[in-house]
Write a structure and sequence with these properties.
Radius of gyration: 24 Å
Distance between the termini: 54 Å
Strand content: 5-15%
Structural class: mainly alpha
Largest sheet: 2 strands, antiparallel
Order of helices and strands: HHHHHHHHHEEHHHHH
Number of helices: 14
Length: about 290
């Protein structure tokens, strides 16, 4: 049945996957999953570009369903799928990873370790939010390493573009109107004006997490603050906990400042950010508030 996945029709492939998932058993699940994994890897090549991300998402959902029904194959597939976090199917993959981390505590340590190593490759804001939530919720060992990795990607506040350099760049690449003479089909001349928009500023040398904060993602900043706060509260070494707390508070203050200066941020987003960050800071710095948790 699975040989029909070579068909260029997505409808046929969808029917084939549905039939295969319905009849899969514990005896043949490993073989079925191996075929699905190979198909997922093929979708990243140019030969299968016609099927696109829709086909890849369908395969990932099918593998997810098999892992839920047959836990023995979860470990063999989740590490392979995590390599696709930086692709356009990243959200489907990270949802699968979140479910595996929740259901199988024995797999948490290796999965969280790999998640830290590929954190810098994630380019989607939504996927990065889920990654930070998973790290903050389930990391119980190597907490110092996790905080250092996240803060290295965050960098030092403020999370704002230098105003002078921004004005300079915008002045150089501002919108332009180009006027030229053209010959019409009837042989007459006419004047044509072409409006070229300014390209967006690209931060090539900035880590993905810091770039998203500089671009004004307030919600990501809130998730980042909550993640670091949870990790600081779990650290048992008092000296390390103090160092982590100091850096976390500075980063959260930078997030609030970014939210205040971001033009795209709505008033409700700014107020919500201030409330959540204030609560996190109070929990970290006020022993009475920490005892209430």
């Amino acid at each position: 049945i699975l040989r029909a996945l070579s068909s260029p029709s997505q409808d046929i492939c969808q029917k084939v996957v549905q039939v295969a998932i319905d009849v899969v058993t514990a005896r043949n699940v490993q073989e079925v999953v191996n075929v699905l994994k190979r198909e997922v890897q093929k979708t990243m090549s140019d030969d299968n570009s016609g099927k696109g991300s829709t086909y890849r998402n369908m395969l990932i959902r099918a593998i997810h369903g098999c892992a839920v029904r047959f836990p023995q194959i979860a470990e063999s597939v989740v590490h392979v799928l995590m390599d696709f976090l930086s692709s356009d199917s990243g959200m489907q993959v990270i949802i699968f990873v979140r479910a595996i981390v929740e259901q199988y505590p024995l797999l948490r340590a290796p999965l969280l370790s790999k998640l830290l190593t590929i954190l810098e490759d994630v380019r989607s804001n939504q996927v990065l939010c889920v990654c930070l939530w998973i790290l903050g919720e389930y990391t119980e060992t190597n907490i110092v390493e996790a905080v250092e990795t996240i803060t290295d990607q965050t960098g030092e506040p403020p999370f704002l573009i230098d105003i002078n350099s921004k004005e300079e760049v915008l002045h150089d690449v501002g919108p332009k109107i180009v006027t030229k003479n053209v010959i019409l089909p009837d042989g007459t001349y006419a004047t044509q004006s072409i409006y070229s928009e300014a390209p967006k500023i690209v931060h090539d040398n900035i880590p993905g997490l810091r770039r998203m904060l500089i671009d004004g993602d307030v919600f990501l900043g809130e998730i980042l603050g909550s993640c670091l706060t949870k990790l600081c509260l779990r650290e048992k070494d008092v000296l390390q906990a103090k160092k982590m707390t100091a850096r976390t508070v500075l980063i959260m203050c930078g997030v609030v400042k970014m939210a205040e200066m971001t033009v795209a941020a709505q008033l409700s987003s700014l107020l919500d950010c201030q409330d959540r960050i204030s609560l996190n800071v109070r929990v970290l710095l006020d022993p009475k508030a920490r005892d209430m948790l």
